[in-house]
Specification:
With 240 residues, the protein is mainly α. The protein contains 14 helices and no strands. Helices cover 81% and strands 0% of the residues. The radius of gyration is 18 Å and the shape is globular.
């Protein structure tokens, strides 16, 4: 992107530095510090700082556990899971997401649980476990509130990949298109980039190579503009 070529700080790194400053500014408010640290962890992982990202989200979760923040502590996988995905450890991401899914179910909390389940479905797709991914995606659909864009996009993006893997390409393209449309006008560039990448995959499965290349290009541009180096590298591999 233009920002990267100019040598200026990427949006992800700029946001990370601002968030680190906020952590220092709210010293003494450990709950707020923990929430900001989870945000910092994802931004560090995008830049390839895997060790720092892992240490940050684990410290934040420990702090929330100590504070007795049940629902918050049980949903840290919404940040830690993507960190492990960017780190290339899908097994760790799955374990973390399953743990939080069970904890949130026990607490009777469904709003955050739908996002956790949606991320779990996505990880299972990445592992090629399509039957289990489809089951979890359907569960996400049943849990997702109509106004929860993250969960609504996640179940569609995961389920479309499952359909494409089993030859249901028309249904896959329709679901993937819906997922991308849900991100229109939403300030969530990574969510949109991932939805575009999933659309590209199912378009390729439907033998629409030119359309697939265009969507991959769109997704890659969004990752690069955000400064998500790890996500961009993974996408190039997937596109190849």
């Amino acid at each position: 992107c233009a920002t990267a070529r100019s040598g200026a700080m990427s949006p992800a790194l700029e946001a990370r530095d601002r968030a680190v400053s906020l952590v220092q500014a709210v010293e003494g408010d450990r709950r707020t510090q923990s929430v900001i640290m989870l945000f910092v962890a994802q931004l560090a992982a995008m830049d390839g700082q895997v060790d720092r990202a892992r240490q940050t989200y684990r410290t934040a979760r420990d702090m929330l556990d100590e504070l007795g923040q049940g629902v918050l502590a049980a949903s840290t996988s919404t940040d830690g899971g993507p960190v492990e995905v960017l780190a290339g450890d899908l097994d760790a991401a799955e374990l973390m997401l399953r743990r939080d899914d069970a904890a949130l179910e026990a607490l009777g909390e469904n709003y955050l649980r739908s996002t956790v389940a949606g991320l779990l479905a996505r990880v299972l797709v990445m592992k090629g476990e399509f039957a289990e991914a489809e089951r979890v995606a359907e569960r996400t659909r049943s849990l997702a509130a109509t106004d929860d864009v993250d969960a609504q996009v996640l179940w569609r993006s995961s389920l479309c990949r499952c359909y494409a893997a089993t030859g249901r390409t028309d249904e896959a393209v329709a679901l993937a298109t819906e997922a991308v449309a849900l991100t229109d006008g939403v300030a969530a560039p990574i969510l949109r980039a991932e939805a575009l990448a999933d659309l590209a995959v199912v378009l390729a499965a439907a033998n629409r190579a030119e359309d697939a290349r265009a969507r991959f290009s769109d997704a890659l541009a969004m990752h690069e503009a955000k400064g998500n180096r790890r996500g961009a590298d993974e996408l190039r591999g997937l596109a190849g």
